[in-house]
Structures are given as structure tokens and as C-alpha cells.
Hints:
α6 packs across α7 and α10 (276-282) runs antiparallel to α11 (285-292). α2 (62-74) links the parallel β1 (36-42) and β2 (80-87). The radius of gyration is 24 Å and the shape is elongated. The protein has helices spanning 2-25, 62-74, 92-106, 122-128, 154-160, 184-208, 213-219, 227-232, 242-252, 276-282, 285-292, 296-299; strands at residues 36-42, 80-87, 110-120, 132-135, 140-142, 147-150, 224-226, 238-239, 260-263, 303-306. The protein has 307 residues and is α/β, with parallel strands linked by helices. The protein has one domain: 2-enoyl-CoA Hydratase, Chain A, domain 1 (Alpha-Beta Complex), CATH 3.90.226.
Amino acid sequence: MKKIYYYSGAVFLVIILFLVGFILLLPGDGISSKNIALINIDGTITSQTSETGLFSEFEPSVNDYIEWIDDAEKDSNIKAIIIKINSPGGEVIASEKLSRKIKEASEEKVVVAYIETMGTSAAYQAASSTDYILAEKQALVGNIGVRMEILHYYGLMEKLGINVTTIKSGTYKDIMSPTRPMTEEEQKMIESIVDESYYEFVSWVAENRNMTINETLEVADGKIYSGIQAEKVGLVDMTGTEGDAIDIASKMANITNPEVYVYGGSSSVGIFGMTFNDALCSFGYGLGRGLSQSNMEESFKSYQIYY
């Protein structure tokens, strides 16, 4: 009787190995058979990869985007890359890493940005790093600027009778502490950092959009434009659809029969085709995260700097 079980198990294993081998030998329909890579940049641009669970979806981090762009850049069959953007912006460092990678890829291959619903702040910085920007007519574009949010709750602590004793090694060690007001000198120090970051942002856009610093400053006051308005002020090259973006990329890369391979994809949609959390983020990242996350440490993070 035991021999029957052994033989049955062996036959089952052989069948499984045969099926696996057969599947591996089937002709693939992956990136190697395509000539255009379309990379979805959805939601807030951040260095943190979200944890997936039964009721949550995977949200790529900037490292995932960079990996996808690098993959497309190195594939010899890919002649053009389309960066499809549905993002309100995000963290400064993450944004700069992404923009540098897109710029690097544009030096090797044709890279076109397609702003579908929203390409503002850091997301616009990413778009400006491409060879050509196309946006939907009613997409939200621009919002060029920098902000640092500092959460203070010392007033609430006073009402609750909570006291904090801070022992520090230097005068400025507890700068931006949520448990006390900032001094005028401290505020000027932080403003200088924001101004420095803003100048870097404006310079990047000016260089990549072939605009002067003064021309860029005129449209870099935090204002949000529609796709139509953005074209008029020089922030995008034309308005159109995803199909138009594929046509533009094909013409620029001399592709006669475009075949698109898609990296990533949009998660559940809500306001303007974005998640509710992303919509909140577009008007205030700290507020959006605070309302949408159950993690108290995230909700009460005292400061961060964003594009």
C-alpha cells in the first residue's frame, strides 16, 4: 500500500514539473515584446512603501518608480517611456531622486510626461524632467512651491495641564519642537531652508522647460493651472489624451507600430480620479495623512518639508 502512495506522489510531482516547464517555455507578452514603457506615478511621492494587507493596496514608493524607469531604460526594445502622472506632489528628497532618474532616462531615450488628473508640485517637477509634457485639458498642473508644516500643540497641553521638561545640549537642539513656540530667529532659519529649496525647484523647472528664472518665477507662486492654462504659460507643451501621448512618443522615437507595456496602475479612484487620501494630500499633506492614517505617530509628526 505504501508503494502505491510513493508512486502516486512521484507521478504527481512529474506532472507538476512538466506543467511548470511548459508554462515557462510559452512565448511571453512582457516588456521584451513591447517598444513603449508606460510608468504610472499615482498618489503622493514618498520614500515609504506602503504595507499591503487584506483591505489595503500596494502603493509604490519612489524607489519602485526608479526601478521601473531603470528597467525600461536598460531594455533595448523600449524606444520611448511615458510617465503617466496622477499625483499631488510629495517629499522633497523623494521628488528630487525621481526627477534626476527621469532626466537621466531622457538622455538615453525619448521620455514623455502625460498628466491625466493632477501633476502638481513635486509631480510637476518630475514631469518637467521629460522631453515633452502633455496634459488633459482639465488636469490640475503647477502648484510650484515649497512648504514646511510644523505642528504645535503646546496650547492644548497648557489647557490639559501637561508640562514638558526638555534637557538639551545646544541652543537650537529642540528647534521646531511641538511643545513650545518658535522664536523669531528660529523661524528665519527655517525660512532660509525653504527659500533655498524653492530656488532649487524653480531652477530645475527653468532649465528643463527652457525658461528664464524670471519667467519661471512668474508662474511659480504656488498657483494651480488647468491643462489649458498651463499650456498658455509654458508649463506644458500641449493638451490631449493618453492616446495623444502615445502618438507623440511614437513620432519622437520613430516608432511605426507602438506597443505599450504598463508598469504599475491606478488604485481605487475617488475625487478627480484619485483616492480620497490623495485628494486631501493635494491641499495639505499633513492634514490628509493625519485624517487617513490610524497611526498616532504619523498623525502627530511635528514637521516635514514638501514640494
